[in-house]
Amino acid sequence: MSRMDNPGADIEPSKEALAFGTDEKPKAKISDSPPPYDETSNDDKRKQEYPMTRLQIIKNLLVVSFGFLFLFTSFQSLANLQSSLNREEGLGTWGLATIYIALVLSCMFLPPFIIDILGCKWTVAFSMLCYILYMVANFYAVWGTIIPAAIILGIGAAPLWSAKCTYLTETGTWYAKMTGASHDDIVNRFFGIFFMIFQTSQIWGNLISSLVFSERGQNASSGVYTVCGIYVGFACIGFFIITLLLDRIVLDKEAARAPGQKRLSFDLVWETFRHLINNHYQKLLIPLTIYSGVEQAFIAGDFTRSYVSCSVGIWNVGYVMICYGVVDAFCSFTFGRLVQYVGHIPFFILAFVVHISCQITLLLWLPNPDQFYVFFILAAMWGIGDAVIQTQVNALYGWLFSDNPEAAFSNYRLWESVGFIIAFGYSFNLCTSVKLYFCIGNLVVGMVLYGVVEVLQRRSKSKSFDITPTK
């Protein structure tokens, strides 16, 4: 029985007081330990139990979101321009492929190890420097600068995303316990807010490049330098947002280490492999995670090049992608809020219906400049599906693998990167229709296996991932 169950356990009456008829009152022996009764406010108790207040958690969620917004406003837009800016001998495309090849190798080894050394905050910060180095290399884009910078970026990308996902999952878990809300609900909401802010990078980055390159009288080289300079500046702002404003967290498993226990272990290097081998849910989610990379590569590369540029001109690519970014950002936030009422499954069904409808339409439709509005409709529909894929798959990983988030999100980035590599690998070797058939097949297999995960989870825990408000 604990002292909380018996509040008088530390009170020891004197022997004289036990005698019948004595006037002496029992003497209290006060324990050196804190009193078991309430002498502190609820707020003080909450601070002792959790390292952050609810307000601090929300603040850090926004800091992470805006830090990534500034960084990827630069990187995503610069990546979209690589095939145009650095097209000699395919330097830009080979650079992007190199990024994701290095990212795959990084995912297999580095994230748990780096996060264990630096913690989530400084892993994010130092990984951002890898992105900035790649952007600086574009000022003098040759094989000797772009390829090494791409390798460094790929190595830093896996720890960056794993640390971000771990940070949001950990703080979301604290917030759920503090508020009494469902863990899945809060993690979904956090990822929804993050991707709402993050996906607007498509808007600002495309707007910047469109405005710079549409200026009259500016030669191409000065336009490249202007764009690269703006992008490097934005990325540096994101770096300083993280380093100056983000609070450091200690992961629960790190806090539970025994004093003197080594922080580093060779087992950490193989944690990602062990997670993949030992966890059946992870294996089943591989096709859907690969599709996440394939569909992003298709909309950014094949849709813009094969449909928009060829039909209505390259100067309209930015505006079509702004539509995609706006819808993606809005739906990311909205779906993250609505999932607590309807659960994951309806949104995955929505993503399946929307994306397969777009893909069949692109197979059957002959692009026509007179049907200019169709390009925006297709971009918006693709954005709806991408919002589901990005927010719900991330949240699903956070919910399923909350006991080992670093290794889980390392696997997520690994297999998503495989999707990008596949898409870049066949980009110049297959016609667009074949790529669309591959997207359809990948989507169908991924969604079917996701359904298997739902069934297995229902059987093992007698509940689904569908969340209903706690009563």
TrEMBL record:
The keyword Membrane applies. Pfam families: UNC-93. It is found in: Membrane. Residues 1-45 are annotated as: Disordered. Keywords: Membrane, Transmembrane, Transmembrane helix. It is a multi-pass membrane protein. The keyword Transmembrane applies. It comes from the Eukaryota. Gene3D superfamilies: MFS general substrate transporter like domains (1.20.1250.20). The chain crosses the membrane at residues 57-79, 91-110, 122-140, 146-165, 186-204, 224-246, 313-335, 347-366, 372-400, 434-453. Belongs to the unc-93 family. This is UN93A-like protein.
